[in-house]
Amino acid sequence: MIDFARVQKELQECSRDIESSGIRVDPKSDSLACLTGTIPGPIGTPYEGGTFRIDISLPDGYPFEPPKMQFATKVWHPNISSQSGAICLDILRDQWSPALTLKTALLSIQALLSSPQPDDPQDAVVAQQYLRDYQIFAGTARYWTETFAKTSLLGIEEKVQKLAEMGFPQALARSTLEAVGGDENLALEKLCPG
């Protein structure tokens, strides 16, 4: 059974220092078993300036079992699947400890963005590119960051207007768009369940 009191405490801890860490964890719905994590791209990397969303699913055995995490934002990285967002990181598998938290897991993912491990890849194509031609890898990673991990406020406002014209309240449209990183199609899916 998930220790929801601990999850609530972890969410409070994340919200206390969001200004300094940039790391955020929010519930996707009323259930604390499905969360969305947000991490900033590390400075000095091709991911700098991006905001990356990570879907978090807590298994029944949490905190004794690791959370299931995968990138919702597309990212070009040897240890992250460019197709599914699956993450190759030991603490999300066999090196998990109940002493770790959602925030420490997200910090570890952020560190992985800074220090790829191409010898233990999740995405072999990206790993080969990283090893054979780093400049092309870095350019592609920067392009993906610009395309998928950055949202302009102007773009968001235009999308809010489109959704409002479809009959959704502006505040709801804005918060939904922000929750899905500005992805209009995902926002529509969330606004139109079923």
From TrEMBL:
It holds the Pfam family UBA. One of its GO terms (molecular function) is ubiquitin conjugating enzyme activity. PROSITE patterns: UBA (PS50030), UBC_1 (PS00183), UBC_2 (PS50127). Keywords: ATP-binding, Nucleotide-binding, Transferase, Ubl conjugation pathway. The keyword Transmembrane helix does not apply. Its EC number is 2.3.2.23. CDD domains: UBA_II_E2_UBC27_like, UBCc_UBE2K. The active site is at residue 88. It comes from the Eukaryota. Residues 155-194 form the UBA domain. Residues 2-150 form the UBC core domain. Belongs to the ubiquitin-conjugating enzyme family. PANTHER family: UBIQUITIN-CONJUGATING ENZYME E2. This is E2 ubiquitin-conjugating enzyme. It comes from Rhizophora mucronata (Asiatic mangrove).
